[in-house]
């Protein structure tokens, strides 16, 4: 940990929307006079019927529920598009940069976005999609992904985006969980010069399930596609048959907006549900304060719309604020490690928001690739998805930003809808690696294992003591699991699953997950999911998966595998298991190390002692702690002797 402080640059202190004084005053007001504060903020949105109530949430079991602005009526697409038409119709809304640098960029104005979204919405309606229906999106990073999202919101359908890197098995699970009968996909998705047939993956998923009856296919690359009669429809054919006018559906603030599946410590990924009013306000307000975009800015969030970062900060936040949002199809390091900085120059990007794992990978390539570009347009840098190590932070600040741009290290989660603990560029002196201070209305606290609230400079489990508008509302189809997962460990507060430290200046530092969730290249994964995939393999009897520190990915995946009696551990089997996990979940779950072991360290009651497995994966044999409670302590020696390093 570092104690360096980077003061607010004069250029920001003088002009930022939120100054240090304003932050201090408004933060107190956001807690002490919360309802009034939030009803005022709600005026940022355009409502058919403005809300008269703000927070009606309770974290207690007896009257548990999360509800905001419950009598308000609005439409998300109207907020992201229609209300900008009079003032910004000709401004670029979505600036699309393709994977291959020699292909042209696409510039979609707010007026064009309106036309595209209305037409897409009419295509959905023509296919029988109604308010409340679930529509699964399995799309590459093309503008049609944003059109499809906004089209769903226009007619009140609930979208569920599945990241294009997930396998057919993973896709099938997410389609059936929410009983989605329509999937929107593309012929192919291209990243880093390689094309994947997304449509073929949907076909494979469809063979595993029964609920799917329509597949809308967007032609993105013109690659080969097999169309199934009666089920598959080309988007361009369907679009030619519908009109271009589609009034936005008035939605209640608490009507479901979207589902996004995310990993937890146990069980299958859960469908995190966000609703209309609170989510949109949170995405818009955090985006406005944290990135502080001005007219003429080009803002770039280099995430994928398959993750929550893409939902809140490529599409909903910036568009609600009328900001030009850059959408990039490709990867950070192709065809050259200078690609990101070239994109910054080509489009004169003013705010850049990316993940530490990308920064670490690019940093390793040396400063030369950065220095060959200008980056003079940049005013602000952002980081998201995992703790940023001070070395990567300084490189981002000193080399990428030429020491000129503040870094907003934003801590949040799929469940929180948007930023929770983050610097504000005109208000917060920065400490490399610290998420800094809570956003308005966010009341973080630290508790020990027994739930006792810890005061002062200390470390503990991070909880949030009251609701905020962007909070998830439920786990799709399993409200009991929502309560159980987040509110049962420490009654009366929301448990984040993260650990954190508060220093003597009151800065918050996120230390990482304290549960069985790992963060691989900024992608969140439940160790239980990888274990479930492994034990489905016919040779495997048992598996335990842990994370270990990885220079580029942040965390890598280390799997301990016990084989069925008679199975021989070979290099070929190891390869086969890696391929198996990739097929079951997707390439993001590729194990970095697989150690075959005759047994796992278990207590006498049969509980696997993961603490020991984590230490061994890290190569930290000195600190294994008490192993005397193990049913068979000798297992540990075998594990150490055969560690895969
Ligand atoms: O552990 C925290 C880490 O990512 C988790 C949330 O992952 P996900 O729901 O996929 O959302 C990612 C995008 C917000 C958190 O529980 N995390 C996210 N941002 C940070 C972070 N850890 C440290 N610093 C951050 N800025």
TrEMBL record:
It comes from the Bacteria. Its EC number is 6.2.1.1. ATP binds at residues 385-387, 409-414, 498, 513, 524. Gene3D superfamilies: 3.30.300.30, N-terminal domain of ligase-like. Keywords: Acetylation, ATP-binding, Ligase, Magnesium, Metal-binding, Nucleotide-binding. Residues 82-467 form the AMP-dependent synthetase/ligase domain. CoA binds at residues 191-194, 309, 333, 521, 582. Coiled coil: none annotated. Transmembrane segments: none annotated. Residues 23-80 form the Acetyl-coenzyme A synthetase N-terminal domain. It catalyses: acetate + ATP + CoA = acetyl-CoA + AMP + diphosphate. Mg(2+) binds at residues 535, 537, 540. Catalyzes the conversion of acetate into acetyl-CoA (AcCoA), an essential intermediate at the junction of anabolic and catabolic pathways. AcsA undergoes a two-step reaction. In the first half reaction, AcsA combines acetate with ATP to form acetyl-adenylate (AcAMP) intermediate. In the second half reaction, it can then transfer the acetyl group from AcAMP to the sulfhydryl group of CoA, forming the product AcCoA. Belongs to the ATP-dependent AMP-binding enzyme family. This is Acetyl-coenzyme A synthetase. The gene is acs.
